[in-house]
């Protein structure tokens, strides 16, 4: 199977070299230009041309590394990166590395951290983050209430929040919907109206009412992806026990997810596949919402309509993160180390690699699509 | 006691210093220590109260062990810009541990942490505390602190400020962690471990015995074996001593060391000695009368390599402090060494145990060839007026071997990396089956530490498949396990480090048979965070 695929690609472009096959084929296959974005240590934003799988440009992010979390504007031209140990946000025009936006959230007396949360409104005008402020008294810390901070992107450098609204604790990744809400991934998945602060529950997690034999879900998402399927995924682990003796050995362990359609703001929550190995992130195939891919020590492919794992590819090291081309054919597996591994989404076989200048560690791996 | 005996010379020296010490030492200068706080800490902390009884915000509402205060001061230095000279730091730790320490009873059950003996699985105090605090810390870490409820609350906010992702960890993100920690946990800790306790009030008032003098010491050093020695503590100033240690390992090799000790809180003995070229630390607690010390001695640079240490004060009376080995197989003549002081008179090893021959005899050490007949059981060992109850176990058959530590973590290291390997030292404890004839039951008779041969095997099928036993490290004959080199190993799946999950096997010979015991070991990656207390 692998050989057939190889010969087909090679035959098409008259080359036996796989790397050049990809770079030769891709431009004609894509009308829009896709860029893969990620951050490496010490603190660089890389803009990778997905038609050639080469680094197009590298933008230096001020200050120390943040976590590599980032949001991409809907038009694909700008990326907003969380820097300085989760405290600052820097926006870049990925076409030329010009820094167009910055916000330093902490002050000498208030320490403000954003735990991965950064999102841009669908119209590209507002930037959202959940601030977790801590007051620094002379001899103690005081925990303050978290808040959604809204920035005007037009304010450019040294922007200050134009509105703030109280939100729950423990919110990590967020996303903006096309209807103007911001999805907040915390104990439950909620949505907030960034105009007036009104919130609604999109789908319950910690407070779900699934029955007494189900373990409350452990949901945590460090990474944002899902732009290719226009969705927000919050994966979780749960277990169904066979009795109130809570025997972990005999329980059925499940991966599940809350998946929000960013066009509508509506969510589905379901157990997807049996827990067989650790998956750090999932993405949905943009062509088929039942097909998911997952990465960690393996790259895996799943059909959630049948709760089945279709294929597993053993990776040579841990990859926290993954994303997919808009045509659904190519998977990029990254994070953790300094290489992005490229795979065929049908077979999961490795078809290429991109070497970066530093480790991605926890960084996001996002796709910016600049349309024709 | 012969006057030419070296030990008695040191004893005389010690007595001389005793007289002097009372003259030169003034209380460690509580006022000086308070002045250090005023000079160095008030940029952030606030002083209230009177000049004679000042109160310092965040400081006066806590009590801690010497190590606890050292950690706090280190943190202030590393994170908050505190600048102290070495002398000021020492004086502050001493003052705070003396005036805001823990009573002896308050450290009971948690001394392993102070003794840096962390290869053990704690008996959980409480599920809530285990999940809220114990998921990152040892439970002894917080059980060895006393704070007001408000201070426990401040500690929760400290965690949120200093380690902002605390509430996102596993066992936190699935619950309202901050609310639980700040309300329920802080209140619970305030009740279990409050600032003001009867124990501490009593200990503050209690008269404390100076620990200067001459001590009969027994202990164990991994790779060297059991030893007995004399230790002298000569007072240099209040709570500070020059220490010498001189003795013999069980194989007859000499042991010599000297160094310094500090006594905190009236009973916490901390000494640093160089013993035969190796820097060692002693952590012991004195009993309330100040006549015995119990604890652990370990290699300063490698706290996992250590062993039990105990000392009995020489008060001029006869005492048997240990019998090495502590067991005698019925029917088989064997050498026993009685360790003690001022040992005069007849030797009596208890019912049915015959001294066939006295091989050597001194006032502090008697070696005999002994043979036991009769029933299994513990015997009281007597020399003249001195008696040590249950000092010798007579048994007929070894039935069970326990491996200590039963659970251990070692860590890969070396190979050009910044961190050395973290080894583990093991001992085997033998038991006979007891009256019911079944090993592993409550009536098993503990015989004591026994020589063993050591090996490893993979912990389970996955570990076997990954060849953990091939890569993760190996034992030497002395029961010291050395883990593998740090770094990626291209021979392993995913180029894994030389980590592994192992079963440790001790094999002890007993007559013509062998008895095995097993322990569990995790060979883990490096721990890059250095802490005074885990």
TrEMBL record, chain A:
Keyword Cell cycle among record annotations: no
Range of residues in the leader sequence: 1-31
Domain of life: Bacteria
InterPro entries in alphabetical order: Host-pathogen_enzymatic-act, QH-AmDH_bsu, Quino_amine_DH_bsu, WD40/YVTN_repeat-like_dom_sf
Name listed for the protein in its UniProt record: Quinohemoprotein amine dehydrogenase, beta subunit
Keyword annotations from UniProtKB, A to Z: Signal
From TrEMBL, chain B:
Signal sequence extent: 1-30
Keywords for this protein: Signal
Domain named Quinohemoprotein amine dehydrogenase alpha subunit: residues: 210-313, 318-395, 401-530
Domain named Quinohemoprotein amine dehydrogenase alpha subunit haem binding: residues: 32-200
InterPro entries reported for this sequence: Cyt_c-like_dom_sf, H-AmDH_asu_dom2_sf, Ig-like_fold, Ig_E-set, QH-AmDH_asu, QH-AmDH_asu_dom2, QH-AmDH_asu_dom_III, QH-AmDH_asu_dom_IV
Designated name of the protein: Quinohemoprotein amine dehydrogenase
Source superkingdom: Bacteria
UniProt keyword tRNA processing, yes or no: no
Source organism of this protein record: Marinobacterium sediminicola
